[in-house]
Amino acid sequence: GSWKVLAKQEDSSDFAYVQTMMNPSISTAYASFMKDVSVVDGVIEADIKVESGTASQEEAYLFFRMNDARTQGYAMMVNKSKWLYLYKVASIIDAGRWNFTQLEYIDLPTSFDPYQYHTYTISLNGPSISISVDNVRRIVRSDMTYYDSNHDNVGIGTSQTGGMVWFDNLETKDSIAAVD
């Protein structure tokens, strides 16, 4: 995909990471992984906004505990339908498409507006995976499948987008680096 750093519409002096490659008709995922960041246990946080587009889902992803080949790990996904998922990434099908196994799913509240920035926090502690949205815990799951030092990569991604997806304040805590 094509990723850019662009000035935010709300504040032209603030910048965010944006996927500008849009393809609303297919399920190809575009991903970018953080360099020199390693998180097995810790916190991953990002502010995400999905722009209104022509795609049916407009999906935003946070990948975590991914292996170096980016073929195994976990993904949090939120979309414009106000659905929040926790997936296990079991394998890669081909470039830009993964084989996901759904671990958890919830509908976000009707008041949730995917077209506004929301803070997504993934807390990792041993087998415990917790996902919060705007400081409200939404998903808690225990899974040991990819809990080891070979699964420590963090990334962002999009799929089925007709509008831009904005990622801001991407940060890891209890790890080597933070990126804004």
SSE diagram, text form:
Layout: E1 3-7, E2 15-19, E3 29-33, E4 42-50, E5 59-67, E6 73-78, E7 83-94, E8 97-107, E9 118-125, E10 128-133, E11 136-142, E12 151-159, E13 165-173
Antiparallel strand pairs: 1-2, 2-13, 3-12, 4-9, 4-13, 5-6, 5-12, 6-7, 7-8, 9-10, 10-11
Brief descriptors of the model:
mainly beta; seven-stranded antiparallel sheet; six-stranded antiparallel sheet; globular
Computed structural class = mainly beta
* Strand content bin: over 45%
* Relative helix content: under 10%
What assembly state would you assign to the polypeptide chains in this entry?
Answer: single chain
Structural write-up:
The protein is mainly beta and about 180 residues long. Helices cover about 0% and strands about 55% of the residues. The chain has no helices and 13 strands. The protein has strands at about 5, 15-20, 30-35, 40-50, 60-65, 75-80, 85-95, 95-105, 120-125, 130-135, 135-140, 150-160, 165-175. Strands 1-2-13-4-9-10-11 form a 7-stranded antiparallel sheet, with no helix packed on it. A hairpin with a 5-residue loop joins strand 5 and strand 6 (about 75-80). It is globular and about 40 Å long.
Quick synopsis:
With 180 residues, this protein is mainly β. It is 0% helix and 56% strand. It is built from no helices and 13 strands.
